[in-house]
Amino acid sequence: MASVLSLLSCVVLVLAASFNPTRGQLDPCFYDKLCPHALPAIKAVIEETIAVEPRMGASLLRLHFHDCFVNGCDGSNLLDDTPFFTGEKNAAPNKNSARGFEVVDRIKDAVNYACGGNVVSCADILAVAARDSVAALGGPSYQVQLGRRDSTTASAAAANSSIPAPTFDFDRLLANFNSHGLSLVDLVALAGGHTLGFARCINFRDRLYNETATLDSGLASYLKSQCPLSGGDDNLAPLDDTPVRFDTSYFDRLLRRKGLLHSDQQLFKGDWGGADGLVSFYSSNPEAFAKDFGESMIRMGALSPLTGSAGEIRLNCRRVN
Ligand code: HEM
Ligand SMILES: *[C@@H]1O[C@H](CO)[C@@H](O)[C@H](O)[C@H]1NC(C)=O
Ligand SMILES: *[C@@H]1O[C@H](CO)[C@@H](O)[C@H](O)[C@H]1NC(C)=O
């Protein structure tokens, strides 16, 4: 019965998707015939992984974001550096920060076994892993579009310039999202991804010591004990009060001047301009946040995918075939 229902919802959503030009050539049913066991295999690895280490859900969500914002969702950020190839793993936004690559390797092995061959792209693995991680941590389970193929190239320069930095002010955050064809609603809903996970001291030190006017003083003194003026660059602090639970605590905190990153607090400045209204709305409407987050993830997941015969299905997500 469950599989009949999921097949039905797939067909219904394909009809709906065919009226939506932003979804390009991706298709939620892409693996239904090619490998019906692919999606359950991914979900099983995600659930096992998160049961052992809940933070990994956050890390996998972020990997999909960092893939899609750099020349589209094509698995480019999974390629290892070699003496002859420079990938994105050591670009500024990823170095000592992006994590979850071993989980992607385990998923790749599991789907290749479940499918009896190499049919599922690394880019699709990231999209499904992000969705299943969000769902496993209490968030929405939206329908993921599929059929992406993997790049044969990567760009450290594009990773440096295309992923927004935590030092950005509101206007720059919005301009960055607009440059990817995403809106203000997408910016606020997707920044809500910071309902999960942690950041390193090096990314919020300036805010602690230089932005006292916009930072709650109780939180500031606690965070200073975790993140001294010098040293402890990699010490972690949670992005909201419940870093392994998908909820609206991130938005609640912004309303109380408790955003961890400068970029987070830029989404609520207290002047009712910019994104203030949306942050306030999501903080008291968890269902609207969950729905908009799912829709924005689908839009982000559709950024310039390689489809058809473009790119390849990598055998190993860490290197081109
Ligand atoms: C709006 C612009 C954004 C900026 C400036 C930003 C910046 C950051 C920074 C600096 C960190 C901490 C990294 C570290 O300290 O190692 C982080 C973590 C994270 N980001 Fe973002 N981010 C943004 C948007 C997003 C989006 C759109 C998503 C996903 C939809 C996302 C998901 C995450 C998650 C889940 C973590 C925690 C990862 C973990 O614990 O491993 N972020 N982000
Ligand atoms: C990316 O940024 C890092 C850190 O700022 C820098 O060391 C590196 O050279 C940059 N790479 C490219 C290709 O621009
Ligand atoms: C605070 O801002 C000043 C002036 O911009 C800068 O020199 C200093 O390095 C900053 N301190 C921290 C801890 O970021």
Automatic annotation (TrEMBL):
Might you report a single GO cellular component term? Answer: extracellular region
Q: Which UniProt keywords apply?
A: Calcium, Disulfide bond, Glycoprotein, Heme, Hydrogen peroxide, Iron, Metal-binding, Oxidoreductase, Peroxidase, Secreted, Signal
Q: Which top EC class applies here?
A: oxidoreductase
Q: In which residues is Ca(2+) 2 bound? A: T195, D240, T242, D247
Classification via CDD domains: secretory_peroxidase
Q: Where is this site: Transition state stabilizer?
A: R62
Described purpose of this protein according to its UniProt entry: Removal of H(2)O(2), oxidation of toxic reductants, biosynthesis and degradation of lignin, suberization, auxin catabolism, response to environmental stresses such as wounding, pathogen attack and oxidative stress.
**Gene from which this protein is expressed:** LOC109723912
What's the protein here called?
Answer: Peroxidase
Q: Which organism is it from?
A: Ananas comosus (Pineapple)
Can you tell me which residues bind substrate? P164
Which residues are connected by disulfide bridges in this protein? Answer: C35-C115, C68-C73, C122-C317, C201-C227
Where in this chain does the record put each Plant heme peroxidase family profile domain? 25-321
Alphabetized InterPro entries for the sequence: Haem_peroxidase (IPR002016), Haem_peroxidase_sf (IPR010255), Peroxidase_pln (IPR000823), Peroxidases_AS (IPR019794), Peroxidases_heam-ligand_BS (IPR019793), Secretory_peroxidase (IPR033905)
- Reading the lineage from the top rank, the first entry is Eukaryota
